[in-house]
Design brief:
By secondary structure, the chain is an alpha+beta fold. The chain has three helices and eight strands; from the N terminus they run E-H-E-E-E-H-E-H-E-E-E. Strands 1, 2, 3, 4, 5, 6, 7 and 8 form an eight-stranded mixed β-sheet that branches.
């Protein structure tokens, strides 16, 4: 594996904030390339009701600012959901998927701690993150502490496994 190119990770601004639409479109472009063009999923399954309120994270190589990876975080009742992790094929060798998952985890921890209103997290406090993993990448999620939960299921025509991680909130 060659050395990774310089890169930046950007938390796309929230709805209504300057720069959101351009950066979110860059996330969408990566998703379409990976899930629709490369993997053959129908385009109409790529965008859903969560896109407007989700936190989108974008990875771009420098100095060109070329978007090469993205991940999406959806806050649901009682847990967060890791979705739409995509890295362009030519850049997977640089382990940018790991960088994106770690960035999402940092976002989740920060948001969960902020919801404690300045109180320190109790010892052993965790926050739950769920991912629906395509079967060939279950081991990838396992490296981050995700464990399978329940039976395999079909999602958008491909077999998936629910994977769950509990991230520590204490320092």
């Amino acid at each position: 594996m060659s050395s990774p190119p310089a890169y930046e990770v950007i938390n796309v601004p929230a709805a209504g904030q300057p720069g959101r639409e351009e950066l979110r479109q860059q996330c969408y472009d990566v998703r379409v390339e990976v899930f629709h063009r490369e993997q053959g999923f129908p385009l109409d399954t790529e965008f859903d009701e969560y896109d407007d309120e989700a936190t989108h994270i974008l990875l771009r190589v420098l100095p060109s600012h070329t978007p090469v990876g993205t991940i999406r975080c959806v806050k649901l009742k009682g847990y967060y959901k890791l979705t739409r992790l995509a890295v362009l094929k030519d850049y997977r060798q640089f382990r940018f998927g790991r960088v994106l998952v770690e960035s999402l985890h940092a976002h989740v921890r920060a948001e969960a701690r902020a919801s404690l209103l300045g109180e320190p997290a109790a010892a052993g406090s965790t926050v739950k993150v769920v991912a629906h993993s395509q079967l060939p990448v279950k081991a990838f999620y396992g490296k981050f502490g995700y464990v399978p939960e329940g039976e395999e299921f079909d999602e958008d025509g491909a077999p998936h496994q629910k994977m769950v991680a509990r991230l520590s909130l204490s320092d």
